[in-house]
Specification:
elongated; 2 domains; WH-like_DNA-bd_sf; Rossmann fold; four-stranded antiparallel beta sheet; 41% helix; alpha/beta; five-stranded parallel beta sheet; transcription regulation; Sig_transdc_resp-reg_receiver
Length: 228
């Protein structure tokens, strides 16, 4: 995914860009509101998410968010040190899709980026209502929550489907165990690790494709897209 990072601090931007790159993102760095707005021409310019720091040197970050929303539907995650509810509500009313307060955990930030990109992908009218992921012989129909392999339906539990859909959104990208637990089970890692392992094993068995989900030792899992 291409990500636009709007951050005036070069040191912060360099460190965050390195982390995002390790997780499969192609990062473009804009140092000001004007640079960000120019980067988004025309109509989002292919970016999947905008990570917008509100402390910009040339324009108020909230104003930049409003301008971005007028130009494109690209999801925007605001990043700020302001933690009061009124500031968050103001940002969301301007069209931000999410709000992260500094200092933040990198894992939480990654989870929020993936969450808003998936949510907006499901809502994108350009999909023509056929929001399906095709991975070789595997078809994952997101609206109907149906999965098939070579045209044959595979019955999955709700959590099995959520897990598969999460990994399939970013083939090749490593999802940390903590991130998966947070997004699929909506809870913390403690006591849920074994549940994740069981669900991964069940998916491999039901899909009859043990190599589809790869274990990245000490980190988490990633989906390896099979050949068509």
């Amino acid at each position: 995914m291409r990500l636009l990072l709007v951050e005036d601090d070069n040191h912060v931007a360099a460190a965050l860009s390195a982390v995002l790159a390790k997780h499969g993102f192609q990062v473009t760095h804009a140092r000001s509101g004007e640079e960000a707005l120019q980067a988004l021409v025309p109509e989002g310019n292919g970016f999947g998410v905008v990570l917008l720091d509100l402390g910009l040197p040339d324009q108020d970050g909230y104003e930049v968010c409003g301008k971005i929303r007028k130009r494109t539907s690209t999801p925007v995650i605001m990043v700020t040190a302001r933690s009061d509810v009124r500031s968050r509500i103001h940002g969301l009313n301007l069209g931000a899709d999410d709000y992260v307060v500094k200092p933040y955990d990198t894992g939480e930030l990654l989870a929020r980026i993936h969450a808003v990109s998936r949510r907006t992908a499901h809502e994108d009218p350009a999909t023509g209502g056929d929001s399906a992921l095709l991975l070789g012989p595997v078809r994952i129909d997101l609206p109907t929550r149906q999965v098939s392999v070579d045209g044959s339906a595979v019955q999955l539990t709700r959590k099995e489907f959520d897990l598969l859909a999460l990994l399939a959104q970013r083939p090749g990208v490593v999802f940390r165990r903590e991130q998966i637990i947070s997004e699929v089970w909506r809870t913390s890692w403690e006591g849920t690790g074994r549940t994740l392992e069981v669900h991964v094993a069940s998916l491999r068995s039901k899909l009859r494709m043990p190599a589809l989900i790869e274990t990245v030792r000490g980190v988490g899992y990633r989906l390896v897209a099979p050949a068509a």
